[in-house]
Model the fold of this input.
Amino acid sequence: MYTEEMLESIKLVEAAREANAAMEPRRMSAEEKDQVLKENHPDYRADQFDTLSVGPNKGEKAPKELVKLLQSDSRLKDHLPDLSCPDYETDVLIIGGGGAGASAAIEADEAGQRVMMVTKLRIGDANTMMAEGGIQAADKPNDSPAQHFLDAYGGGHFAADKELVYKLVTEAPDCIQWLNKLGVEFDKDKDGNMITTHGGGTSRKRMHAAKDYSGAEIMRTLRDEVLNRQIPVIDFTSAIELILDDKGHCAGAVLLNMETKEILIAKAKVVIIATGGAGRMHYQGFPTSNHYGATADGLVLAYRVGAPLREQYTLQYHPTGAAFPEQIFGALVTEKVRSLGAKLVNVKGEVFMNPLETRDVTAATVIRECRRGNQVNTPGGQGVWLDTPMIDLKNGEGTIEKRIPAMLRMFGKYGIDIRKQPILIYPTLHYQNGGVKVGTDSQTCVENLFVAGEAAGGVHGENRLMGNSLLDVIVFGRNAGKKAAAKCKDVELGTMNLDHVKAYDDELKAAGVETDHVSPLLLPHYARHER
Done:
């Protein structure tokens, strides 16, 4: 499977393994972190960003691909549908079928409101399902939400909304118990206590996991709860435009059946956007670990009705995406591999950094190591080694099979036994750090429009720590569901309209923006042949 060049490098890795396993590389100083980020992280490449010419973030920078999407024509520009006879009518309309959407649906239903979910693919086809490493919560005697706050806020370069971070960390222990009671099979010791581990940037062992398919286990449980409650789920249906009423409040959404292309109208007292991230935009040409539908739909929908974004200029490139073989190029190699003891090693067999720096610093350092000429060349690119056999060496034989079985299976399909051979990694586009600006009630500045999960900004600042995304979707998904359910009791909808579509088009023309694209994108460009 490996080339001759790779095999020669593996010999150097094997020769140094015991010594490398025993060493503890020092952590970088703050100054060193800043330098490696500025010189190597994709977020600092000025030529990859443009300035927004229209909308609530006019004058601010964003990735070129996102700017083009936000400044594209509405899919309804030339044919506004009749809103007078809605196809669906509900109290709480949830757009998205991942962890945040499902959590919101459960809580809104628990509050006694009519709930409906619409999802572009199927419920569970989401980044939540693909999350591997775990979910953070400070629920052990040697830890505290205050310590969790310091880790998360500092790890995000102090750019996050402190009130949102406070909510994230203080409600984390309760969310773990909520999931546990719903039936999530967390890793536990023989006495039934939850096993926790370190993650990058964490000062305590607070990562709760279900092997290395934590997100799939959480999503399985949430999906079952949604279906058991008989909450209506409209699969293969995308929201392509929000609907406002004559007071400027959110009043529903225009939907597109992805199979028949039929346009449908959903009227709702409140709307929750839970559409996830943007990995399938392939910013800067990076591969991605994201699911097929991650095309920033929620950002477009909210932006066009006047909801501003925050930290839209920063993305997370997970430091360990699979770099070889090509069949799994960009696939996530969970950070849990490093938290269990595997170290990053260059072509010479040298450990070149502490494996548990924050994700942005680790990704930037891997890129720097390759730029220095210490990369391992592959038939389709480059990477560095993640020395997985160290895990069993340090923790005992069988640890890999017990703790990261999905990784063992993924590489095993291609003849690579990660218990005996190191694996090649390179950063992969993983997470949308920013998103739609929300308050602690998960509501935007547009009345009755809520956003939760990866589509919302402010929770993670400019970098997210491992395990805080699964936590985010649960804490703020539940929060949005509760707050939206309470809000809709007092909502009296006015006359529904799509006036904002023409207003946005007029703004594009006034700014001199010409486009031959439409948005939201819905599916990555290589999946279709539309504009």
In short: The chain has a mean pLDDT of 96. The two ends are 40 Å apart (CA to CA). The first strand starts at residue 49 and ends at 51. Residues 83 and 265 are 7 Å apart (CA to CA).
